[in-house]
Records
---
Amino acid sequence: MDIFNGFKRTMGLAMAGKSPWGSGKGGDKGSGGSEGGSGESGGPRNPWLPGGNKNGSGDTPGGRRSASIEDIFKNRGPEGPNRGGPGGPNFSFPKRPGGKSFLPWVIIGVVALAIFMTSTHLVGPKEQAVVKTLGNFTRTMTPGLNFSAPYPIEVVDVEDVQGVRALNIPGTGEGAKLILTGDQNLVDLSYIVRWNIKDLEQFKFRLVQPEETVAEVAEAAMRASIAEKQLDETFSGQGRAAIELDVRERMQETLDSYEAGIQVLGVEIEKADPPSEVVDAFRDVQVAEQNADAARNQAQGYAQQVLAQAEGQAEAFDKVYEEYRLAPQVTRQRLYYETMEAVLSRTDKTIVEAEGVTPYLPLPEIRKRSTAPQPITAPQPTTAGN
């Protein structure tokens, strides 16, 4: 309690402009004279003041006195007492000629500019905008200059409705997308779905996350379509085209049932590969199938060739038989000669058993001599006497 009373007494002296160390003046005693003590200054001298000669009033030339509460609040700030300028104690807005302030006009201008900016909307040629009045949908803005109530009474949300948006499945950073085919095989598919906005009101207020909805619908449609196809169909060009068309139709039907306001423009399969774990075995199977197809095609070609030759020979025999019916003896001799010619043309030695005929005929030598080119003999020069 004594400590509290002493602190209270000290604060009272400070508020009265007095220092607990004495006022520094010889005749100032007052109510604190009894406490300040007697002497030249009427109390204890401030120990923080420098020593020196005192004048008649007790002031110390060149010294300083302790600051009072009023001095502390008067001289606060880095620029000393009574500092002015923007933000300072003496700052004020410029005055109009009549002496009134420009502040009301500044506030009115700022409010008018904000109203104009939030009430005027320029919608692009490929865009549309939805207007929400107090949080509820009221109308749709078409391309051009449009007006609305200022914010926050009406909120305008502009959206590109004709731009084509592409969605990659699987997305960046996702793993392989394995899908089961109709013949119980797995295929790794990656594809692109292209879409745009068909109805902006449904797109904004029917779906919470439109892109995620499109991705989920596309995956469900792709799995349903692949489940009806064989593995080979997913690798061929015609099979892919049929799958892409089927997926697009399934997606559009599902999104229309959701009233999503989305138009599916197309689906494009980028990659259709077997799983990475069995890709080597799958390639071996493909090579074996290609070899089998090649052998099968070669056998079919040979069979067609033999059949064509047989048909030609049968047709020729029919024509020979018709001639044989007209002249049997002549046709028989002709057939004999043709057969002998075909047989003897492939032999090197021929032995003929007949009277007056050489038994051995060197047919190859005769043939060579007949086909060998004859040497060209130069003409003999004639003499002048002849």
---
Amino acid sequence: MSEAVLTPRHAWQPLTPRGVAAFAPATFARLFLAQFAVAALVALAVVWFLHAEWFPVVRAAIGKLPADSLIQGGTLRWPAATSAPLAENRLLSLVVDAADAGETGRSADVTVVLHKNYFKICSLAGCWRVAYPPAWRVGLNRPELEPWWGAWHWPVLAVVALLVMVALLAGWCLLATIYFPFAKLAGFFADRELTWAGSWRLAGAALLPGAFLNIAGLFFYSIHALDLIHLGLIYLLHIVCGWVFIAASPFFLPKESALAAASPNPFVSAPQSETKPEQKLENPFGSSGPPGGDN
């Protein structure tokens, strides 16, 4: 490990322990710029996933809606008491169960079921049930939803991207505040030069490599190379990744003892230069001869 001081100009990539350590002596603005760029990449990945995998299912389901169905007064008003899927793929399924038969099954990773008085979202973790608010009036029919979806699906993606970025930046700020004492402790035991403010910046940068794991996991999940269980494992792994970088990155900072040796000790006086032997000065008021000489 190099003992060279990592100046702020090296703080440009948070993908290695040395790159993360470079953010400790850097400015907060440089850390925020890196976090903003990574958050934008994550938001772009989420938008791409929704547009490629979920939105085609929504579009197909809208095309199969009847012309006079709606949700009003906390009740789904459907032309017939039927139970059938509207549209689905391997990742998302949209189902109407107006008869409350409860036999729709779950063939996709995420299933949204519209019941008579509530809707539920089901996945591996179970089902989340939400009743229709009485104040809702949703035109759940093709004549109303088709033009609305055509006009608003891109703004919806933009809002999703903005929410993802805000959530990530706020979450990283909170986690850095929780983790930075551990980064300071690691720097103390490693005998490294690390201030409290530098520990916070290092902890904030250490969370970024895990975000790239999530991007990779979402990509491989969308191309069906991973299932939902493996995607969840990658999400857990990205948390562990942050801990590993917090523990390892302080070792790439300069040693505290090396900096102390390079600085002069103010309590030790400088060595005095050698002085020449003291020379005897002549007496300017008399001769050099002994007193009491000849008159």
---
Amino acid sequence: MKKQRIVYFGSPEFSLPPLKTLYLGGYEIVGIYTQEPKKKFRGQKKYNTPVQQWAESQLLPVFTPEKLDDTSLKDFKSLKPDAAILFAYGKIVPLNWLNTPLHGFINIHASLLPKWRGAAPVQRAIENNDKKTGISIMKMNDQIDEGPILAQQDIEIKSTTDGKQLIDQISYESCSLLFNTLKKYFLGQVSLKEQDHSLSTYAKKINKTETQVDWGLSANIIEKKIRAFYPSPAMWFKHKGNRYKILKAKISNKQDVEGKIINLPLTVACSEQSLDILEIQAEGKKPLNIKEFALGNNQFQLNEKINNG
């Protein structure tokens, strides 16, 4: 039996484990598509994606087209792919691309479709206080996350689960699910299951405005947002002209005027209950646990209000 020719589409660190699984599992990885290098940090130096860095270390061919248009499609067709696997690539794939591989495009999606279609399924599941999410292996069509399902697997969301923990778990557990499903799929042993579109929910892209802490919300709601948006983009607030990210926090039963610092090193009252901030990051600084942070920072005084300015 010939090796299946696979083209992989992915960009962030968490999309690497399934790629490595396919590579080590005997598939012929004939090309890798990833986001073009982006400027980062203060020096504005361009950095390759983690997928590109790894692919180049293995001497695999990498493609970083700015647009998936007819010009770049020629390169894709020249790879003669049997299938394309996509996990967090970051661009919409046009229909003429989807129709190129013999067996189509297979997507690893980080939810139990049709729930949480869209850009931020991990974050929205935590923010929504879902008790479980999962992995969907889906054959892509020209609609966003609406294709038929090849396989699914449940994953529990605990009361302490944050965004990084959940996407890392999905990433690693997707490896065996993808590998075993692909094997059957190429042999024609997988039945495609259409989604029930009436049950769909949409995980909209995270807007920067929603990541600013609103102390007028309950501590319960804010704490879920902190876990959902960790480590990036992260919830944040401003105080005395400085911006701070809240990386970890826990709910306290203490009550006072919303936005008021009611305990040190840093407990802030919300509309209901309050938040003990456990890990914080000042803009341009490294993350610190709150006790370390308090040693070198006197910006927060007992009984004053967070002023958001």
---
Amino acid sequence: MIKNKNILITGGAGFIGSHLFEKLLVNRNYVVIIDNFNERYYKGKEEYIEEVRMSNVDFKDFQIINSDLLDNSTYEKIEPEIDIIFHLAAHAGVRFSVQNKIEVMRNNILGIVKILDYAVTKNVKKVVNASSSSVYGNPIYTPVDEEHPKTPISPYAISKLSSEIYADYYFREYDLPITSLRFYTVYGPRGRPDMAIAKFFNLIRHNKELVIYGDGEQLRDFTYVSDIIQGLILSAEKNNSSGEAFNLGYSKPINVNELINKMYNVTNKPKKVVYTEKQKGDVDITHSNIDKAKKLLGFSPQVNIDEGLQRTYSWLINKEKV
């Protein structure tokens, strides 16, 4: 476990970032968060940070920088000498990217170049780059291993593949120790409201209709957020992870129809579902081969979909009571 380090998390006020912030904070690290708290994309980041603060009142070793990665002055505000960077900041979402191609390209690609330049200049000891399973596109075989061809079918996926190419370039040309992690459909408390599980639970709780794109038979490798946090920390700890890319998933995909049935069982609400045409940029199946992460990182996902859905719903209910 990482302890007593100075750690920078870009996008640290977001879904995954806030969970990583909390985990690193309680393990006696000094954590710097850079986040622009952009409410146009999604709201609630201030609440996420406040939730972490209130749950960990004894831990005060952190700095929050409300700024943009593309602004040069942002980096002048970082107080400590950074040991490890977790680069999670990005405009995420396949559908968002289809409608906002230039914005996604600008933020996601230029953002990682800025961070990598900073890391080289400051001799940062390790960088972990958050990538995505979307870099594979529609798979030609499953489960998908890291050598699978990369044929992204959305601007978001292209930007994530570009981030990996830059990571590899900085590893080769500047000897920067960097690892890229391909996340598979992350869900859990504080989940982005545009993602399926968070969106569906919110609709179900208010007895509203679910709209399913396609026939609902598309398969998704849903991965609980605490398992992703485990993979992030392991990749920062392991020297043999540098210059590599790893899949992080649960590796037991289910189809969307099955997911919906499980969610209605958890909520005990009447089922209201309609189907519409498939959305551009959506892949038919995500299914991770995580053998490489198991072998080199010691990665071992722990939370199955039933437990993960129950935890997520309990968090939503408790949040509503506050």
